């Protein structure tokens, strides 16, 4: 991975001289790929298989090829990450983690010296197959982060909002996630980081959160003044101005809210939603206000929580303004495991008949989720994750048949952030047999979610520098659809453009992301066929 300049942070300020863009780890040698100092342009043949039914109901598969042009802006610039809920367990943990990595810190633990790392981040700690060695035919794998010119998390300016006034050092202590030896190494910088006051509509989160709400702006329901406040915070605050930022990504990692009712005339269209905010409709959530303000500032907005922040009106507004949105709900532990295990079982022809998912945790997220309306938001996002995999196998499942699936979450303060996930997968196997898989998974919630926050921010920013056009006379480059379904790997309930399918299978999600990035540099998808090792 290209070496990285470090920089210091005080109150979100990223100091240090302008960074030299790191040189790419690889170049593509092809007449279809052109590199300039500012851009990578590629011509890409997209091969698919179109299936039709013949008159006698036979399936007919026809290979299809579409030609696209991709363009990647190589200039990363200075990027800011603004977290809503910055003072929470995730917000304080990801901040400390970035500071520790930026400074290359190590600290003493009971098991010995621990160095900062980005484990759990697909972007920073996973590799992808580039190809095979011309001489030895061995696989050549490269860091995912080197696929395209992406921002390095060490360079992210960090800021955000919280209804709690605690500074980030106090928030880190409250979270009880990180080792004291590490906390002491970053405390001095984190003391200087203070969340901006936020908007607080009590009806949307559990009443047990009220005691934290000492850093709020006036008004307990939506108003256009709230939108303007958030816009100003993004655009004019010392955060962006002081850091000379070129771009900001806004990430909701605040409490899980209750679902908002989708009401015709209120939030079903962009115009109705804007009007509902202006008239203070009580069904407009704080998270939706942040989304609208981010869209107005052309700052990608990602929802890391399960509620339906991005109501149809918000999605339409993003589409109208060609702004990026994504969500919902970080896929960090129990559900991530589920989306891999269910994919394996069903694709192995094993008929999963029931999934029991229980977990208990003792952090503030668990406290908020102990309230039924907030739990319901999470139950929805945790329950739909198997639908696409089940629907794809008509041998095992009749139409609309699916495994029993239950989700239970209990708040047990004693275990803190170290969530205990217990799962049982029950399946029918050959000739009337059964298989029972029981999992006990201690997921340190914030340490699993924090790398996903980094991935979502880095990838959302990357997508702002990717454009495409049809291979046709006069075609203009344009951005991907406003709904960034390319982020699905990191999310439990991935949002997709209207009318497009939701893919939850973890392997498919990762392949889609990698192969889209390969296409941006003119490389065909990695098929894993390795014919070169078979046609011998
Ligand atoms: N593994 C994980 O930690 C994980 C996984 C998936 C989803 N999530 C979701 O991420 C979110 C954050 O998780 P957490 O563990 O950091 O929770 P947390 O309760 O520790 O942090 C949430 C923070 O949001 C703040 N907040 C609440 N309403 C706000 C508002 N309107 N504006 C600004 N700040 C506000 C709270 O004061 C708190 O500091 C939750 O919704 C959780 O469900 C977490
Ligand atoms: O990502 P995951 O481990 O499946 O789901 C988790 C839930 O099990 C947990 O109860 C909740 O507090 C976290 O926010 C997260 O959503």
TrEMBL record:
InterPro entries: Myo-inos-1-P_Synthase, Myo-inos-1-P_Synthase_GAPDH, NAD(P)-bd_dom_sf. Its EC number is 5.5.1.4. Residues 333-446 form the Myo-inositol-1-phosphate synthase GAPDH-like domain. GO terms for molecular function: inositol-3-phosphate synthase activity. The keyword Hydrolase does not apply. Its cofactor is NAD(+). It catalyses: D-glucose 6-phosphate = 1D-myo-inositol 3-phosphate. GO terms for cellular component: cytoplasm. Keywords: Cytoplasm, Inositol biosynthesis, Isomerase, Lipid biosynthesis, Lipid metabolism, NAD, Phospholipid biosynthesis, Phospholipid metabolism. GO terms for biological process: inositol biosynthetic process; phospholipid biosynthetic process. The keyword S-adenosyl-L-methionine does not apply. Residues 1-29 are annotated as: Disordered. Gene3D superfamilies: NAD(P)-binding Rossmann-like Domain (3.40.50.720). Pathway: Polyol metabolism; myo-inositol biosynthesis; myo-inositol from D-glucose 6-phosphate: step 1/2. It is found in: Cytoplasm. Its main location: cytoplasm. Belongs to the myo-inositol 1-phosphate synthase family. This is inositol-3-phosphate synthase.
